[in-house]
Design brief:
Elements (H helix, E strand, L loop, with lengths): L9 E11 L4 E13 L2 H15 L15 E6 L4 H13 L7 E6 L7 H15 L4 E5 L14 H9 L4 E4 L8 H5 L2 E2 L3 H14 L9 E2 L21
Amino acid sequence: MPFTVTNRMKLEVLGDIQVYDRAARLEIQVQQIRLIERSAVSNFLEIEETLRKKGVWKEEKKALPEKPKRIALVTSKYSNAVEDFIATYKDNISKKTPAEIFVMDVPIEGETAPIRIAEAIEKIHREQTADVIVITRGGGEYSTLAVYNDPIIAEAICRTDIPVISAVGHAKHEVFSDKIADIKANTPTDAALQIIKAQKKQGSCGLRAAAILFLMGSVSTSIFILETVQHLH
């Protein structure tokens, strides 16, 4: 059998059934077993094992910085998560903490999404352009969140030395990026509040709207937008 049977797997089992009426017991003499679907738990444990073998798995979670200067949102620029995060941050940010927020525009669904999200995280790490990375999107059905179960995203999170917040689904959904990130937030709004909470813990006070930058290719204006990760390589 080319796999180990674990809890919550969906299996097709062929064999001889024996029923013991008095003991109210049923036994199956298994002749053949086929894997239909692995559980999320099984998949996550496999990803963890792979990352441990590569030497990048980190047991300890990184704390959020007390005075972040730049916050990176890894998401689609069209996602509601952008507006939700920025609105919450602007309404609660300390006057003495003028952090900038920029969006790394990536697809949040589809076949190319995992690699593009991972590339965005890797680029931020390589160039050290942010003090906090927030991986986020505007919720959705669990099937649409499967992108964030991809091991390539998990590895990118493990490899960066920048604190990562995963704010992908809602409280009822948990994806692998939630488990691996330094902080799990239930929503984009919650992610903003957790950053603010970390700042206030360090004694920050007062209110000030953050400078919001959307990065774009041209530098002829003070408003920028990062169209895609590929354009920035």
